[in-house]
Amino acid sequence: MVELIKIGFITITLFDLLDIAIVTILFYWVYKTLKDTIAIQVLFGLVLIIGLSFLAEAINLRSINWLLRLLSDIWLVAFIIIFQQEIRRLVVQMTRNPFLHLFVKKTVAFNIDAIVEATIEMSNKRIGALIIFPQTQDVSISSIDAGVPVNATVSKELLLCIFNTKAPLHDGAIIINSNLEITTARCILPLSATHKVGKRLLGTRHRAGLGLTEKIDAIVLIVSEETGAISIAQGGVLEMGIPPEMLHDILRYRLSAR
Description:
The protein is α+β, with helices and mostly antiparallel strands. The chain has two domains: 3-101, no CATH class; 113-256, 3-Layer(aba) Sandwich (YojJ-like (1), CATH 3.40.1700. Helices cover 48% and strands 19% of the residues. It has helices at 14-34, 39-58, 62-82, 84-95, 98-101, 113-125, 156-163, 204-215, 244-256; strands at 3-7, 10-13, 129-134, 148-153, 173-176, 181-187, 196-197, 200-201, 218-223, 230-234, 237-239. It has a seven-stranded mixed sheet with strand order 4-6-5-3-9-10-11, sandwiched between helices. Strand 1 (3-7) and strand 2 form a beta hairpin.
């Protein structure tokens, strides 16, 4: 390999620069994902310990190197246990990467008119709703409590019947697969630890939709029972107050995004 830089006994090749660039990009991506959480501070501590360990090994401080490596192993295990939610969010962000989607077969049905029409009508009548669209992951791997199997083709009338406040299935969420079939109803979702977005307090329905997207790669359509406002949660981010006239284009774009 051709040497690009040589400083004393240290030589740097093209592969070394490429290696450094990849690691830098990886650390920046992890930092960008976790920067607003306390996990980033603990991660910096782990990186510092690993760096000191390499330095101790380079100058042949064996005892200190052994101690630092032992401490880094303990620190790593503690980081994984304490920050499960942040790590889960990081994995979700990875699965949404367009490059990974090249290797994932995903069928998208574009006929979402029935869903949009039902959502707008529920919004006007202030009927609460939670609709899950799984993406690259199976919702069965999450902590969703098993609901009631439906296995029926989506229609406006069926959605309105399910979420009717007098219907036995209206509590909880429904799951719609990529073929626009309602597979399950009355699903109980994990609640997000987030209680507020901006200055707005979140109700149970919004925290449930947000909580699911923090754990798996899914899109959750939410209709507020109190205000009739339409929201969409994805990747641990909640977009609130979606105009009804823009819902079709926004939902179609998100469902077809690669």
